[in-house]
Amino acid sequence: MRHAVFLAPFVAACLLIAQPPAHAGGLPEDVPQPPRFAPDQLLVAFKPGTAGAQIAQAHAAAGAQVIKRFDAIGVQLLAIPSGAVEASIALYERNPNVRYAEPNFHRPLVLPTEGRDPMLPTGLGTEYFALQWGLNNTAQALYEVASGANVTGTLDADIDAPEAWDLSRSNENIRIAILDSGVECTHVDLLGKCIEERNFTASTTTADLLGHGTHVAGIAAANTNNGKGTAGVGWNARIGSLKVCHEWPSVDFPYLGMCDVADSVAGLMYAADNGYRVANMSYGSDPDPYSPSQAEADAIKYAWSKGVVLVAAAGNDYASTRHYPAAFPEVISVAATDRHDNLAYFSSFGSSWVSVAAPGHDILSAYPNVACSIPPDDPEGCYNWLSGTSMASPHVAGLAALVLTRYPGITNVQARAYIENSANAQGALGQNFRAWVRYGRINAHLALTADNPPPPPAPITLSATGYKVKGQQKADLQWTGSTASMNVLRNGNIVATTDNGATAYTDPINRTGGGSYTYTVCESVGATCSNEAVVVF
């Protein structure tokens, strides 16, 4: 057992657990908060049709230069004078041609500090499928270092992967975008899996220096049935390493990495435009102080419109606080379960916004070989146990690949419906999963045994009219196509949730002067949204 699993200083993880008590986002109370956003960057969106000369004039007034353009959603990433973020936002927001201006938010990667990870037992050689309780729970015992004992799981507290693989093993034409810290594509369990490695961050390398992305990729689509390492849920699916989380070598803030919103936008747009059918996002942050990004919301909508199945980790606050991008309505938000089908003690939850649960506690997967002090091309490879909703999310991404192969030609709307509608509402010990999430814990076998593809939802048509009462802005919204409870979004942020049966809402904006607002309404359960309706004052 030369490649024993361990937690080394190399380990870092986005949306991994940290010791309680913690700040929002899972940071321990004695750890300083990282900077909220880049001190010298902005994301700005101009209204469609704004002349280039007017855009250039706005940038000149702010002393800004364009770093990146996301033309499909009308967003630009700008370099501005350091320390001028708030003032520059105010300047842009006074411009009638600007839809919104926002910081480039940081999202920290923090060390897992649980310290109760199992050890590899002897006698298994290098084949570790027997340890993957989330795929096939036989009540197998895992030796826990902290307790010094073998601790068993609960029979069938799993996603029924072997039964599912009898029906679908995906195929290499199904591509899963791993938006993460990079992937060690030379790892034996991922060899031949990577289509490409792209870096959208300030890092100087595509390599996974944090370990997180490699672990996530292995869960989604490791080489399976090859007699080595672990099995990936997506079996034959291939992956793209889209690096959107970078190293953070700062002595002032003890984090090993950071995921910036602009990099998330870049990765999402690339995946949408380059043939990826599934995107996994095991990163995120709270709405306070990390407000939902309108640029990220636009990128999510764009990727969804291009047919991508979007999956994201729900978060690790053990609270119902919404995390983004998971809480965007187009995304399958994933909570974590343990070996007994209980909600993992760290997992975020909320049946109003978390779609499904999946195994996420004590998950074994591939890990960069340097962490085991072995060469990059080692024939056995390095493996590690990690816990977090980061580990739950790629179980769902891998299942999406199986579903898309099992039912050729279906849409992302239909693929999502297969995954959600087939989830187990009850756990192996009788737990009510729907007390924690909307649909239940995923069941890969049931997702592949539906008789017919679920029909796409009827379109929701929205209209909006703006007016003023005593100088105060208001907007009347009306829609057809759904009488479900609806989330009303103004500029990408939820401002209200209607009762079932409502088909109209008046938004009391209560602001004076000019400006514009972009509205959508989305069913509060699921991802069906209306068209955009713009109100200009």
Topology:
Layout: E1 37-46, H1 52-62, E2 65-70, E3 75-79, H2 85-93, E4 98-105, E5 108-109, E6 118-119, E7 141-144, E8 149-152, H3 161-165, E9 175-180, E10 194-199, H4 212-221, E11 238-243, E12 245-247, E13 257-259, H5 261-273, E14 278-281, H6 294-305, E15 309-313, E16 332-337, E17 356-359, E18 363-367, E19 382-386, H7 389-406, H8 412-421, E20 440-441, H9 444-447, E21 461-469, E22 472-480, E23 486-490, E24 493-497, E25 504-507, E26 516-523, E27 533-536
Parallel strand pairs: 9-11, 9-14, 10-11, 14-15, 15-16, 16-17, 17-20
Antiparallel strand pairs: 1-3, 1-4, 2-3, 5-13, 6-7, 7-8, 12-13, 18-19, 21-22, 22-25, 23-24, 23-26, 26-27
Helix pairs in contact: 4-7, 5-6, 7-8
Describe this structure in words.
The protein is of the alpha/beta class and 537 residues long. It has nine helices and 27 strands. The longest helix has 18 residues, at 389-406. Residues 1-25 and 111-115 have low confidence and may be disordered.
